[in-house]
Amino acid sequence: MAQCDGVDINSEAQEVSKVTKAVLLAAGRGTRMRELTNELPKPMLQVHGKPVLQHIIEGMRDAGIRDFLIIVGWRAEVVREFFGDGDRFAAQISYVRQVVQDGTGRVVDLAQEFCGADPFLLSYGDILVEPANYVTLASPADDVEAIISVKRNEDVSKGGAVFVNQYFEMIDLREKPQPGEATSPWYNAGVYTFRSSIFYYTARLQRSPRGEFELTDAIRDLARSGKRVQALDLAGDWADVRDPEVLAQLNG
Question: Rounded CA gap, 169 and 164, in Å?
């Protein structure tokens, strides 16, 4: 049974939903990678001889995910030509292009037709996790509306601080808290499970102070609505392939 920082999120008494779809965000150029992404989108940079995106797809596929939607943008043809229809990866892969770069909330909206009423995993295309975590993410209890993955003691000023209650359920999420703001030891690790209710909240997003429609705002609104958003402390190694230094460490 799956454990979540001491909280059993898939007890034998609970019904679980098996997720078979995933949405992967691979539209950005990744400017922090500098010249490395002049010709490649960041998720196509290689770690141990494979694109980061291939590691994600293969890990999810082995957890039972078979149907993928990749949101493409910068150098979209590189992703399409490499993965094709997914047949050689024992998966089905389709694509949607993000034309306007206006935030992660609007990107998720592009997946609504693909997902329909089905639950789905969502991952940023530059996040590497131990593949066993996908099994837990793909098996949410029926009373869980979303799962947000977290890691402890990462620098929350570079991402999101996730606040949890005694049941390890998310109660708040703050993007890049500034010095002096309330914070949390739990860092938003960038892999999620959602039910179709997330589209209700992304459709109602307002622009954030930095002028974007933020997925994290939608997740916060979902949790504040009274729906159960479970946090999952990821097991094993985790990496945000955010810059050349991290890429070099992973390939070292």
Answer: 5
CATH architecture for residues 3-250: Alpha-Beta Complex (3.90)
Cα–Cα distance measured from residue 173 to residue 94, given in angstroms and rounded to the nearest whole number: 31
Round to whole Å and give the CA distance between 116 and 113. 5
Which ranges of the chain have pLDDT less than 70?
A: 1-17
Angle separating helix axes 76-83 and 52-62, nearest 10 degrees: 40
Domain boundaries, the chain: 3-250
CA atoms of 164 and 173, how far apart (whole Å): 9
Question: pTM of whole model > 0.70?
Answer: yes
Q: For residue 131, how many other CB atoms are within 10 A of its CB?
A: 16
Q: What is the pLDDT of residues 9-25, one digit of tens each?
A: 444 445 666 999 999 99
**How does DSSP assign 13-40, residue by residue?**
TS-BPPP-EEEEEE----GGGGGGGSSS
Quick one: the chain helix, strand, coil %, rounded to 5? 30, 30, 40
